[in-house]
Amino acid sequence: MLALKPAPVQATWLGFDASGLPAIDYFLVSDRLLPDSAQEDYSHRIQRLPGSFIAVEGFEVGVPTQRREDLGIPPDAVVYLSSQTGAKRHPENGRSQLRILKQVPNSYFLIKGLYSDRHSLETFFTELAEAEGVNPQQLRFLPDDLTEASHRANLSLADVVLDTFPYNGATTTLETLWMGIPVVTQWGEQFASRHSYEFLQQAGISEGIARNEAEYVDWGVRLGGDRPLREDIAWRLRQSRHTSPLWNPQQFAREMEASFAEMVSRNSP
What we know:
Radius of gyration: 20 Å
Number of helices: 8
Shape: globular
Strand content: 15-25%
Strand order of the largest sheet: 6-5-4-7-8-9
Order of helices and strands: EEEEHEHEHEHEHEHHH
Number of strands: 9
């Protein structure tokens, strides 16, 4: 339908990267979501929103359905978690996650593969663990939750969430920040590798943002071993609910409407 150009001005936003269709005029992002040099990589004109490129009013959180003791994890353990689709898993990123685990005593890694084959996911991480010298007994593979609300509640199992790269989390990162859990993310130059970087910046958090694999591992180890820092980040994330553009959909709607008007005005004869 978009290829038939039913509207004089057409834009894409959210979800995947820009379509590349000649009938699309604009790609909506935010100031941080793409570097200043990105325009040369796009056939669409980049339209930048002044705040976040997405905003939600929060999330429904249910009652936890899993406990650490049910998973055979000691109460004093450091627990990492990664919850992403199988399509976002990359061997290099998986190795970085396991290198973090190897350096943090009494640590465990919870892995949830949304829309993924459970056996393939277990094979993927078990083989990487053996190659990195990590005891596979430190890995726990979680089943899918029955509801989104219980999924968010079960995030409380984790001390630190490890993001994927080169395709970052989006909704999963927002949910993690809403729950007040530190995130370790690596950012790159492409749209898909800057989601979590954007969200952390909008929430006022710089801890956990890595420019490369080495920094990713360093942040994972540091956050795992520094409980006061984790608690400080959790407090700042709770405060951000009142101040961050991430949690202000009314402001976002006004900025989006102004952007629509600007695009139409720019393309009017």
